[in-house]
Amino acid sequence: MNTEFTEAENSAAFGPLPTRPGKIIAIHVAYESRAAQRGRRPEKPSYFLKTSSSLSWSGDVIARPAGTELLAFEGEIALIIGRTARNVSLDEAWGHVGWVTASNDFGIYDFRAADKGSNVRSKGRDGYTPVGPSLIDAQSVDPNNLRVRTWVNGAIAQEDVTRPENMIFPLAQFVADLSQHMTLEVGDVILTGTPAGSSVVVPGDVVEVEVDAPDLGLSSGKLVTAVVEAPAQFDESLGNLPLVDDKQREEAWGSREAAGLPVVAAADETSADQETAASAEDALSPEILEKLKSTPTAGLSAQLRARGLNQVVIEGVRPLTPGTKLVGLAKTLRFLPGREDLFKSHGGGYNAQMRAFDAVKPGEVLVIEARNESGSGTLGDILAIRAKFNGAAGVVTDGGVRDVAAVTEIGLPVFTRGAHPAVLGRKHVPWDYDIAIACGNATVVPGDVIVGDDDGVIVIPRGMVEEVVEAAHAKEFEDAWVAERVAEGHPVDGLFPPTGEWKAQFEAYRDQQSGN
């Protein structure tokens, strides 16, 4: 192992590190406990970069900018490369790690959505990667038996050990994987993910992280960071402003309860989670999907009315392209009436509208509440392209659509009140998504079944769809037989619907067709 470095390189400028790292690479999720907490378990490692100017040392403070809310800590094990690694195998990888130490992957969730996974602003700020205070020789420890612990104001907040059963990926895999794509140089730092327990800290809190090998009595010592508030000015003309919603609060705090948010009942979990599409058991079977595609909305609407549901039509919307058929599960997006101060805080950057279009899944219909206000566009060609790429079944909006010619050419089924050239901010503020909404005077809940054709768009509760479509399909079969008789010149009296002798003839025909 190469452990040679000059005293100047090991000066206070680089704290305990052998040299200024050329790269700081962080892992999104590595611990089973963290994956369970988030409800998302990756199949392969994923990474992001942090700036070398984000480094700080034990005893330094971390500044939460004024006007931000969600500064979260993440106690982690840091690997420091001691020998250049390029295309090394998994068996060889640990031999290229020179040292391990404690680290804290701080981040401001107020910028997390805007960063879209890059974490440039949320985690790249000065001082947001404390490491130290001491290095442990990596070759003297077992990478499968390292412990990381985090304390907030003296109380334990995180504790986990890198045993195989606790890790989604072994530590050495990060070195081997990354070395396939880039040369890992001496001094480069890899932050190996955080276990469950990460949460929000506020000015006045003190966070401590320690990495140790309990069986050997080796320790990094406690990495101590105090949180302070600092003045900050974010210029909207230059970039995104801080912005949080309940989803970011839940992610930053670790749970809805910890964030002080209402606990969502199990039946409402899909609508509460902005990143969760309808579950596999809610997906429409191929048979039901085909029957919905071949059944007119008029017939489906009649069956819903027969079951007591009358407010199921999204009023006033028509397809951009006549002859369009639309079937899918609802994903919802809500706009509030335009208000300048709210649009300033919620309209720019990676807002709810953009997040909803990015998150729409194959087979979903993005249903937009715009309060029947068509005086500005609620989507245009770029967002239509995004929805099309994601495999969306279509879009329904009780507002307007911009770039109509381009949107039509894209081929995404779109139902709208009409075209309008104005941008969103003229009438609307993008506010939230994956919640119950009112579109065209109809209530739409995420996971509802949406069906549209030239007659309009209807909403079918997911729990009723099989019953409704089977009944409508049977009625369509009957109506087709009746239409043939009427075309032959028979009067509709007693035939529409069939009664008496006509009913007997139809039932005989139906039984013959079904093979009974």
From TrEMBL:
Keyword hit for Magnesium: yes
Cofactor(s) the record lists: Mg(2+)
Gene3D superfamilies (UniProt xref): Fumarylacetoacetase-like, C-terminal domain (3.90.850.10), Ribonuclease E inhibitor RraA/RraA-like (3.50.30.40)
Fumarylacetoacetase-like C-terminal domain: residues covered: 23-214
Domain of life: Bacteria
Residues binding substrate: 380-383, 402
Listed GO MF terms: catalytic activity; metal ion binding
KW Metal-binding (keyword) present: yes
Residues annotated for Mg(2+) binding in this entry: 403
Protein name according to UniProt: 2-keto-4-pentenoate hydratase/2-oxohepta-3-ene-1,7-dioic acid hydratase in catechol pathway/regulator of RNase E activity RraA
Organism: Neomicrococcus lactis
